[in-house]
Specification:
Radius of gyration: 37 Å
CATH architecture of the domain at 474-661: 3-Layer(aba) Sandwich
CATH topology of the domain at 474-661: Rossmann fold
Number of helices: 17
Number of strands: 20
Structural class: alpha+beta
Length: 663
C-alpha cells in the first residue's frame, strides 16, 4: 500500500472537512473552545517553523551529471613551486616552508653560477652569501647574508602599492635574476607567486579540471559492472530530490495565521500550499516505472578511420521502449576522456511518448589511439521533479585513429656508429661508396674501375681508390611516457607525450626510408618494445604500436612508472652499437640521467627534447631554468640535444640542429 498517497488523501479530506465547517458552521454538531482553536493555530505555526528549519539544513539530492566536453587536462612544468625547488635541493629537507624556498633558490643560483659563470661551487656559495652574484639588489638581499646589500626602497614601496608581500616579491625577483643568468629569461618580470603555507599545500586545487565523466552514483558509490547481456544498469534507485521539501510550511503558516486571526480568507490561502504539497507527493517514480530496457541508446560515428585533428560527427539516438510516457529524461553521452567536443553538445533533455525517439549530434576532434565511448548517463524524473532515478545505458562504440607515418623533410642526426648493413651512415672505413676516402696499394683482384689510372700515367704505380663506406644504422627510438612526462603549456593542449609519439612516427619513417633498421621502446607504466627491423610489415607494426599501445595512451594513467626496471629491460634487449634517439621533455632529473647512463653503457644517444615550459608564474620560470641546466649538462657530456620549441615543428628543430652541427 502506498502510505504517502494515503496520507495525502487523508490530508485533503481533512482540509475539505475544515473548509466545509468554516463555510457552513451549523453543519457540524460540535464546537471547539477558543483556547483549543488557538492552540491548534500555534501548533501549526510551530510545525511550519520546524519544516523551515529542516529545509534550511538539507540540500537538494539531485543527480550530478558528468562534464565530458573537455578532455583530461595535464599540468604545466612548475605548477607546483615546491616540486621544482626539490629538484635543486636533492636530499636536503627543511621543515619550514620559507626556509625551504630560500634554500632551493640558493641552490638554483649556485647551479647556474657554476654552469654558466665559471664559478667553482665554493666561489658560487660565497658570491650568493655576499650578494655579488647579481646586479638586482633585491634578489641579492633575499639570498644574501648579513653583509649583503639592502633591498632598495622604491621596489619595496611598489610592492606595498601592489599589495605584494615582501617575501613573495623577493622570490619573484630572485627567480628572474636566476633565469636571466641561465639565458632562460622570458622578457617579463610579472607573474604570480604562490607561496604554500604548509609543507603539503603545494598540491593545491588551483587550475584543476572541471569534473570529468565518472560512472559512479551521485552519492559516490561504485556502480555495478556491465555483463555480456546487460544493456542498462541502475546506478541509483528511485529517490527523492528534495525539490518540493518544505512547501508544506506555506500551508501550515496559512492555517495557523488564519486560525489565530479568525480570518477564513487567510485560512483558505493555506490551501494553496496544501495543493503544492499534494502535487509533489502525487507522482512517484517507482522502480517499476522505469524497468530495464525502458530506454535504449544507439550511437553512430561519421568516420571510421580519421586522422588526428579531424572532426568526427557523433549521432546518438534515444528511444522510449516502454508503454508509458517518460516526462523528464536527461542524458549525457559517454565521450572518451581523451577526446574534446569541438561542436554541439553531448547532452540532451527531452520527454518521450511510448515508442518515440529523439536524436542529438555533436562533434569530437580525433586523437591518436583507440577510444571507447562509455555508457550514456540517464537521469529520469517524474512530472513534478520530486523523484528521480539514475541509469547507465550501454552503447558500445569505438573510434580508432591510427596516424600514417610521414617522413621528415630533414635528415635525422645520427652519431657515427653503424652495422654491417648498407645504409646512409658514413663510416671511417674505406670501401665501396661515393665519397673519396683514401688510396692504397693495388691488390690482385681489385676492380679495374677503382684503379687510379691518372697516378699510373704519372708515376707508373698501381694504386686503388677507396671510397667512404655508407652502412645502415640500428636505431631504437625511446619515448619518455612516464606520468611526469604528461606536461603541456596549457591544460587542454597536446602534451609532451603526444608530441613525442608524433615525432617518433616521423623519425621512424625517415630512418626506414633511408635503409636503417629501426625499433621503438617506451619508458612508462607498461612494457613497450618493437625490435629493430625493416620492411613493410615492420612499418605497419610500428604504426599500430604508436597509435594503440597502452604505454603511449593519450591520457596519463594512475599506474606508477617503474623507471629502473624499464632501463634494465631495455639494456637487455639492445644489441651492441645500437643508437638511441631518446624523446623526453627533460622536465625532471630522470630524462638526463637515463640518457647519460645509456651513453656510458656504449649506446650512442641523441636526445630530442620538446619544450613544454611556460613563464606564466615564478614556478614555471624556475622550471625552465632547471630544464636549461639539464640541456647544458647533456651537451657538455657529449650527448647531442635537439631543443624542440613548442611553437615549431620537429622539422624546424632538426634543421636548426643540423645547421648548428655543420658549422
Amino acid at each position: 500500500m502506498n502510505y504517502r498517497r494515503l496520507a495525502s488523501l487523508v490530508g485533503i479530506a481533512a482540509l475539505g472537512f475544515s473548509l466545509i465547517t468554516i463555510v457552513y458552521p451549523g453543519l457540524v454538531a460540535f464546537s471547539l473552545g477558543p483556547s483549543i482553536v488557538s492552540g491548534i493555530g500555534v501548533l501549526a505555526l510551530v510545525q511550519a517553523l520546524r519544516v523551515v528549519q529542516t529545509r534550511r539544513h538539507e540540500s537538494l539530492d539531485e543527480a550530478a551529471t558528468p562534464d565530458p566536453e573537455l578532455p583530461v587536462g595535464t599540468a604545466s612544468p612548475g605548477d607546483e613551486l615546491e616540486t621544482v625547488l626539490n629538484q635543486f635541493l636533492g636530499s636536503r629537507r627543511t621543515y619550514y616552508h620559507r626556509t625551504r624556498i630560500r634554500e632551493g633558490l640558493r641552490s638554483a643560483a649556485v647551479s647556474v653560477l657554476t654552469q654558466y659563470e665559471a664559478y667553482t661551487a665554493t666561489e658560487a656559495e660565497e658570491a650568493v652569501t655576499a650578494g655579488t652574484w647579481t646586479d638586482d639588489r633585491y634578489a641579492a638581499a633575499f639570498l644574501g647574508g648579513e653583509n649583503a646589500p639592502s633591498p632598495p626602497l622604491r621596489p619595496r614601496l611598489r610592492g606595498i602599492v601592489r599589495r605584494e608581500a615582501a617575501f613573495n616579491q623577493g622570490v619573484r625577483r630572485t627567480v628572474d635574476a636566476i633565469a636571466a643568468m641561465a639565458g632562460a629569461a622570458s622578457g617579463t618580470t610579472e607573474g604570480t607567486v604562490d607561496i604554500p603555507r604548509r609543507r603539503d599545500s603545494g598540491r593545491a586545487n588551483a587550475g584543476a579540471d572541471p569534473p570529468q565523466i565518472q560512472y559512479t552514483t551521485a552519492t559516490g558509490d561504485e556502480m555495478a559492472q556491465f555483463d555480456d547481456e546487460t544493456e542498462a544498469i541502475v546506478s541509483r534507485v528511485s529517490h527523492s530530490t528534495g525539490h518540493w521539501r518544505g512547501v508544506s510550511a506555506v500551508a501550515l503558516v496559512g492555517i495557523g495565521v488564519g486560525i489565530l486571526v479568525e480570518q477564513p480568507a487567510v485560512l483558505l490561502a493555506g490551501a494553496v500550499g496544501i495543493g503544492f504539497a499534494a502535487y509533489a507527493r502525487s507522482a512517484v517514480l517507482s522502480p517499476d516505472s522505469l524497468p530495464p530496457g525502458s530506454v535504449s541508446v544507439s550511437r553512430t560515428l561519421g568516420a571510421d578511420r580519421p586522422e588526428p585533428g579531424d572532426d568526427v560527427e557523433v549521432t546518438v539516438t534515444v528511444t522510449n521502449e516502454s508503454d508509458r510516457v517518460l516526462p523528464d529524461l536527461r542524458l549525457v553521452d559517454g565521450v572518451p576522456e581523451a577526446l574534446a567536443v569541438a561542436n554541439g553538445s553531448p547532452r540532451v533533455g527531452t520527454a518521450l511518448r511510448p515508442g518515440r525517439s529523439t536524436t542529438f549530434t555533436y562533434t569530437v576532434t580525433a586523437r591518436r589511439g583507440v577510444h571507447t565511448f562509455g555508457p550514456t548517463a540517464l537521469v529520469a524524473r517524474d512530472l513534478t521533479g520530486s523523484v528521480e532515478q539514475e541509469r547507465l545505458l550501454r552503447a558500445e562504440t569505438t573510434l580508432a585513429c591510427v596516424p600514417s607515418l610521414r617522413p621528415l623533410g630533414e635528415p635525422v642526426p645520427l652519431r657515427e656508429r653503424a652495422t654491417q648493413y648498407v645504409g646512409r651512415v658514413e663510416t671511417r672505413s674505406g670501401g665501396d661508396g661515393l665519397e673519396f676516402h683514401a688510396t692504397r696499394e693495388y691488390r690482385p683482384g681489385d676492380p679495374m674501375s677503382r684503379i687510379d689510372w691518372n697516378r699510373r700515367a704519372r708515376t707508373g704505380e698501381l694504386t686503388t681508390v677507396e671510397f667512404r663506406e655508407e652502412r645502415a644504422a640500428t636505431v631504437v627510438i625511446v619515448i619518455d611516457a612516464r606520468e611526469t612526462a604528461y606536461v603541456s603549456p596549457a591544460r587542454h593542449t597536446p602534451h609532451a607525450v603526444d608530441r613525442a609519439v608524433d615525432a617518433a612516427g616521423r623519425l621512424f619513417a625517415t630512418l626506414s626510408d633511408s635503409g636503417d633498421r629501426v625499433g621503438i621502446a617506451a619508458v612508462g607504466s607498461e612494457p613497450c618494445w618493437l625490435a629493430p627491423g625493416s620492411g613493410v610489415d615492420h612499418r605497419v607494426k610500428a604504426r599500430d604500436l604508436l597509435a594503440t599501445h597502452r604505454a603511449l595512451t593519450p591520457v596519463p594513467t594512475a599506474t606508477r612508472s617503474t623507471t629502473s626496471r624499464s632501463r634494465k629491460q631495455l639494456r637487455k634487449r639492445l644489441s651492441p652499437g645500437t643508437q638511441i634517439i631518446f624523446i623526453t621533455p627533460l622536465c625532471d632529473e630522470y630524462g638526463g640521467r637515463f640518457a647519460r647512463r645509456l651513453d656510458e653503457y656504449g649506446y650512442p644517444v641523441t636526445v630530442v627534447a620538446p619544450d613544454p615550459t611556460v613563464d606564466r608564474a615564478v614556478g614555471h620560470r624556475l622550471s625552465r631554468v632547471a630544464r636549461t641546466l639539464r640541456l647544458t649538462a647533456l651537451r657538455r657530456a657529449g650527448i647531442p640535444v635537439v631543443d624542440w620549441s613548442w611553437d615549431e615543428s620537429v622539422d624546424v628543430a632538426l634543421a636548426r640542429h643540423n645547421e648548428r652541427g655543420s658549422r
